[in-house]
């Protein structure tokens, strides 16, 4: 058993650090951040050892890479909040971009103006895009880098306008309407989910009160009127 624990710890300590494994400097020392997926390499064998002994430790060691990969694919809470915040800001930003382009402002200048008008986190992403557009030779290549990110609706619209040779303002205007409809549908679905999720807690609160206020007095009155002799 001790040998299995030592083997699991040795396996965990031997994991090479990922490139995204960041370090911080605190009081003159380098402090390494431990990623949650690394813990799977130690927890899975130890859990298997506790549950099923040495065979469980072997099974846990085999399952550790799968658990680590599954944990690594989970979206961090901070990134999810940033993605949702950008999705909230994007419809207004696209509408501002359309208004600026309708006034005759070029796309890059319009992006800079919109980036200055909105708040973070969308501001930082738009500023990064404008800097890339300033040094890139082709705008389509820059927007293609954002086809999988929070700016994907904006990137798809501008790439479509560039490829088909249509005015970007009209394509962006359609994209803004679609984004508004999507946000409205998401909020409506979220409101419906809240109603469903609150049904059980409200029932758990009101049913005991109804039983104590309505049913118990009635039963007590009925039992008191019964003659037991």
From TrEMBL:
It holds the Pfam family T2SSF. The keyword Transmembrane applies. The chain crosses the membrane at residues 38-71, 202-226. The keyword Amino-acid biosynthesis does not apply. Its main location: membrane. Residues 94-214 form the Type II secretion system protein GspF domain. It is found in: Cell membrane. InterPro entries: T2SS_GspF_dom (IPR018076). Keywords: Cell membrane, Membrane, Transmembrane, Transmembrane helix. It comes from the Bacteria. One of its GO terms (cellular component) is plasma membrane. It is a multi-pass membrane protein. This is Type II secretion system F family protein.
């Amino acid at each position: 058993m001790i040998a299995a624990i030592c083997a699991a710890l040795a396996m965990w300590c031997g994991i090479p650090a990922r490139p995204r494994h960041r370090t911080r400097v605190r009081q003159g020392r380098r402090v390494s951040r431990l990623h949650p997926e690394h813990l799977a390499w130690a927890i899975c064998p130890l859990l298997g050892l506790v549950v099923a002994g040495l065979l469980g430790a072997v099974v846990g060691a085999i399952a550790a890479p799968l658990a680590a990969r599954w944990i690594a694919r989970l979206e961090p809470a901070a990134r999810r909040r940033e993605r949702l915040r950008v999705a909230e800001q994007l419809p207004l930003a696209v509408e501002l971009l359309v208004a600026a382009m309708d006034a005759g402002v070029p796309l890059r200048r319009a992006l800079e103006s919109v980036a200055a008008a909105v708040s973070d986190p969308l501001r930082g992403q738009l500023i990064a895009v404008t800097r890339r557009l300033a040094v890139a030779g082709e705008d389509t290549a820059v927007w293609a880098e954002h086809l999988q990110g929070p700016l994907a609706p904006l990137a798809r619209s501008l790439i479509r306008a560039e490829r088909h040779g249509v005015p970007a303002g009209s394509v962006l205007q359609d994209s803004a309407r679609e984004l508004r409809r999507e946000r409205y549908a998401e909020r409506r679905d979220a409101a419906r989910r809240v109603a469903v999720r609150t049904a059980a807690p409200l029932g758990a609160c009101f049913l005991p009160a109804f039983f104590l206020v309505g049913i118990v007095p009635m039963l007590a009155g009925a039992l008191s009127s019964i003659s037991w002799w």
